[in-house]
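Good morning N.,

You mentioned wanting to compare the apo and holo forms, so I went ahead and generated the holo version with coenzyme A. This is what I fed in:
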Amino acid sequence: MNKAPFLVKPLDASYDRRIFCSGSPLLDRYLREQVTQDIRRRVAACFVAVTDEQCIAAYYTLASASLLLADLPIATVKKLPRYPTVPAVRMGRLAVDQAFKGQGLGSAMLADALERTARSEIAAFALMVDAKDDIAADFYRHYGFIALPDSPLTLFLPLATALSVLANKD
Ligand SMILES: CC(C)(COP(=O)(O)OP(=O)(O)OC[C@H]1O[C@@H](n2cnc3c(N)ncnc32)[C@H](O)[C@@H]1OP(=O)(O)O)[C@@H](O)C(=O)NCCC(=O)NCCS
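and this is what came out, ligand included:
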C-alpha cells in the first residue's frame, strides 16, 4: 500500500467540488451535492487528496459503524469476544478523479483511511467498506479485505492486520 503522494486533508469550503470526475456519476454527485450536509449532520467525515493547485484528486468518507458477529466469517468470530456486535469504521465512499487513476492514489487513500482510523483513541476492530460493484470489491480484496459470507459487497479489514502490513512497508 502506498503512502499518499498528495496532501490529504478534511474537506472544507475552499475546494471546488464541481469539477471532480471519477467516472462514477453517483460518487461525483455525492461530492458535489450531498457531502457537506452529511458533514454538518455528523453522519460522515470526508477527506480529500489535493493537488498543488488545490484541485480535488480523490476523496473518501468515514463514519462509525458496527459489524454483527453473526455476519462475520467463522474464522474471524473465533478470535473475538462473544458480543453481538464489534465496533468498526465504515469507508462509505472512495473515488479517484479519472486524471489520477492508476497512479497509486486509490491505494494511498486507503492507507490514509486505515492509519486515520487506527490512530483514533476510540477503538474499532475493522475498517469496513461498501463496494459499489464487483470491480470495486476486487480492488479491496487486492488489499486483503475479507467479504462478509452473505454480502460479498461488504468487506472488512481488521485494523491489527492492516497496521502490521503498513508497519512492514515503512
Ligand atoms: C477503485 C479506485 C478507487 C482505484 O483507484 P486507483 O488510484 O486507480 O488505484 P491504484 O492506482 O491505487 O491501484 C493500486 C493497486 O490496486 C489495483 N487495482 C486497482 N483497481 C483494481 C480493481 N478493480 N481490482 C483489483 N485490483 C485493482 C492496481 O492494479 C494496483 O495494484 P498494484 O499496486 O499491485 O500494482 C478508482 O478506480 C475509482 O475511483 N473507481 C471508481 C469508484 C470506485 O469504484 N470506488 C470504489 C469504492 S465504491
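The mean pLDDT is 93.

Happy to go through it together on a call whenever suits you.

Best,
F.
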